[in-house]
Amino acid sequence: xxNATPPPPTATPTEETRQLALIGDLRAxxxxxxxxxxxxxxxxxxxxxxxxxxxxxxxxxADQHFAYVVWGIRDGDHAPVGTSFEPxxxxxxxxxxxxxxxxxxxxxxxxxxxxxxYHGNQLVMLEIPAAATSPxxxxxxxxxxxxxxxxxxxxxxxxxxxxxxxxxxxxxxTGVGAQFLSGDEVLAKLDHTSYFELTEQPLPDNRxxxxxxxxxxxxxxxxxxxxWNITNLGAILFAKQLSEFSPSIARKAxxxxxxxxxxxxxxxxxxxDGQKGxxxxxxxxxxxxxxxxxxxxxxxxxxxxxxSLYPSIAIRELIANALIHQDMTITGAGPLIELxxxxxxxxxxxxxxxxxxxxxxxxxxxxxxxxxSLMRRMRLCEEQGTGIDKVLAxxxxxxxxxxxxxxxxxxxxxxxxxxxxxxxMTQEERVRACYQxxxxxxxxxxxxxxxxxxxxxxxxxxxxxxxSGVIRMAQDEGQIRPAxxxxxxxxxxxxxx
Length: 497
Fold this sequence. Notes:
Blueprint: H1 13-27, E1 36-39, H2 45-61, E2 66-71, E3 91-92, E4 95-96, H3 97-103, E5 105-106, E6 112-118, E7 121-129, E8 137-138, E9 141-142, H4 157-167, E10 176-181, H5 183-189, H6 192-198, H7 207-216, E11 220-222, E12 228-231, H8 232-238, H9 247-250, E13 255-259, E14 268-273, H10 278-292, E15 295-299, E16 304-308, H11 312-325, E17 336-339, E18 343-349, H12 369-377, H13 387-397, E19 404-407, E20 411-417, H14 427-443, H15 450-457, H16 464-476, E21 480-482, E22 492-494
Parallel strand pairs: 1-2, 13-17
Antiparallel strand pairs: 2-7, 3-4, 5-8, 6-7, 8-9, 10-12, 11-12, 13-14, 15-16, 17-18, 18-20, 19-20, 21-22
């Protein structure tokens, strides 16, 4: 078997055009930066390894997606002079150069060499992704760029501290969803009209105004050669067709499946795979689900009225939560909504950041802060800290079984249940409803009482002992406790209060 290193893949015409435009933009820089290095023929493997570490870390400090080393450009005046360096055939210690470098860099980093003809000069460009989760090390040492020097990161504690501060909030949203697009291509891919409508901004009367606003909200960013990038945030929120983007984005589309019975083995009656971005497609998805839900007869104070089986506000808030709190880095999985005869399940990929039983009272946390912030600004979900309140309160108002939140196989699943009488609820459901009722009262500045729990369950006053029995079970299971042990009538609070 041959050990020869395969030649690098040939760039597509678009990739080659972008690479040439990128070289032009890099040459136009007044001097080398902390994330750009020019060389002629120096191909020392150790030097390249240190540069990858230093430039990757420096690119993150400079808020750049990538750093670059370009061979064949003279350092002083940035003139193209060509290079004899051929990374595809270069070796170090009897190993292909790229393989040897990959073995000595931690964490693994997807650097790549690109050979190209630039106006008759042979150039080599090394593209280095910015550090994402921790500083990039070469031979167990992290480096940084300071002027033209490449010292150890640990020798510059102020830069080390700043780098860690930038790594911690680094988010999927800032990544590039599509690159090197013309203005027409951006507007063809993004529903910018929905953006202005949802954010309640007047539509600018010129293209520059449109692009300024999209850029200000980090939906797009400037690329090289006068072109644009669409960020992951822009794509996931406002894509006209998610399938036009990379699979890592396209597979984040919301899926909806309705079943004839109470389990997934029964016949599928409806299926819908979302095509639009979350923001521009949200109302259409919610309306689609609402239209499929059967109605439930509710007896109001004066007359009977038909209303949806599940409260619309609960459905919309749980869908929004699934979109906001999912782990975008889990590939091949997106939010899933499943409608069964007796329940509605909404699942999003990713471990919860707080325990599901503390969703109500814990301070809101999200992996996708920019996504969450913009969706709240567009009023597609409730303000921070009130969403789950609305879900539980609406379930209580309609006297539904208590919603359930579970961590299932590295995913979070929220379940709304169809109406059932108190007599038909399980003991587990009664205790969970009691805990949720006590928690909801507590965060509202009140306390749960036998009377308030009877109202939540629809229990008549002469059957008060039924509510008392649920309270005893919830206490026995450690879900609630007396607000004041010396005064039993003072009510009850959740165990964590």
